[in-house]
């Protein structure tokens, strides 16, 4: 198995920044290091593929990269020939269902884990890099055949993680409470650790090395332990080990 190379963004749009702007340096370093000239873009988290492709092309072309929309080609062949893969944000359920419908789960996983093809995910594209999409914030507007995703990393991610607003009158569960409810499921369920990525967070992974990048801190949830604040620059390589993979391997 090759060394997986991943750049997982909480979101593409951050307040005060243009599309992908906050992560521009990290994206360019990531692609240049891996000698990428053409990026295969997968727009399946949206219903309007062409408009989404144009939006991505406008940014990547300024950086000197060519972008190919997977919907313009045979999708399995496009993945087989990809130099790098970028899956954008949108609705996670729609994205995962389409990946299953087009028989792309296994090919994408093989290219990344076996061939070392660089992978960039944003929001929904970051959700599907995890073992499951259990911690997405999206509405289930369609029904994928499984909530199991690409399983490129051994923990789940909650993009767009929000902190409680002490000035709000809203009485519904906070994001932290919902993740803790997830971790309270009984032992017959597979429950994964969760990394909450606030807006502006980016997780860089190179093999067994993981580092939090971006402009905001993250929030880490390991079952049976208090949530932990993670500062930008923190080494998160320990999350990539099998010993922290599922609820069944964690102390209740």
From TrEMBL:
Catalysed reactions, semicolon-separated = Dipeptidase E catalyzes the hydrolysis of dipeptides Asp-|-Xaa. It does not act on peptides with N-terminal Glu, Asn or Gln, nor does it cleave isoaspartyl peptides
- Which InterPro entries does the protein's record reference? Class_I_gatase-like (IPR029062), Peptidase_S51 (IPR005320)
**Known EC number:** 3.4.13.21
* UniProt family annotation: Belongs to the peptidase S51 family.
Instruction: For this UniProt record, give its keywords in alphabetical order, as a comma-separated list.
Output: Cytoplasm, Dipeptidase, Hydrolase, Protease, Serine protease
Q: A Gene Ontology molecular-function term?
A: serine-type peptidase activity
Q: Where in the cell is it found?
A: Cytoplasm
Stated name of the protein: dipeptidase E
Among Gene3D superfamilies, the record links this protein to: 3.40.50.880
| Cellular component, GO annotation | cytoplasm
**Highest taxon of the lineage:** Eukaryota
A single Gene Ontology biological process assigned to it is: proteolysis
- Function noted in UniProt: Hydrolyzes dipeptides containing N-terminal aspartate residues.
The species is: Asbolus verrucosus
List residues traversing the bilayer. Answer: none
């Amino acid at each position: 198995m090759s060394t997986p190379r991943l750049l997982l963004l909480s979101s593409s749009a951050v307040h005060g920044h243009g599309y992908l702007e906050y992560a521009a340096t990290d994206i360019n370093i990531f692609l240049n290091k891996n000698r990428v000239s053409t990026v295969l873009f997968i727009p399946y988290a949206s219903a309007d593929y062409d408009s989404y492709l144009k939006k991505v092309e406008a940014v990547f072309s300024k950086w000197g990269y060519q972008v190919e929309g997977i919907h313009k080609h045979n999708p399995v062949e496009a993945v087989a020939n990809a130099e790098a893969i970028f899956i954008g944000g949108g609705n996670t359920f729609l994205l995962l269902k389409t990946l299953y419908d087009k028989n792309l789960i296994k090919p994408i996983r093989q290219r990344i884990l076996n061939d070392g093809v660089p992978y960039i995910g944003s929001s929904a594209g970051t959700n599907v890099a995890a073992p499951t999409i259990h911690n997405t914030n999206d509405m289930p507007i369609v029904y994928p055949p499984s909530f199991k995703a690409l399983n490129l990393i051994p923990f789940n991610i909650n993009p767009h993680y929000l902190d409680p607003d002490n000035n709000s009158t809203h009485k519904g569960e906070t994001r932290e409470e919902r993740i803790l409810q997830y971790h309270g499921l009984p032992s017959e369920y597979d429950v994964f650790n969760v990394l909450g990525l606030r807006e502006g967070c980016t997780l860089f992974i190179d093999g067994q090395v993981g580092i939090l990048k971006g402009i905001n801190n993250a929030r880490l949830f390991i079952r049976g332990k208090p949530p932990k604040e993670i500062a930008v620059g923190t080494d998160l390589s320990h999350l990539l080990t099998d010993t922290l993979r599922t609820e069944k391997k964690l102390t209740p």
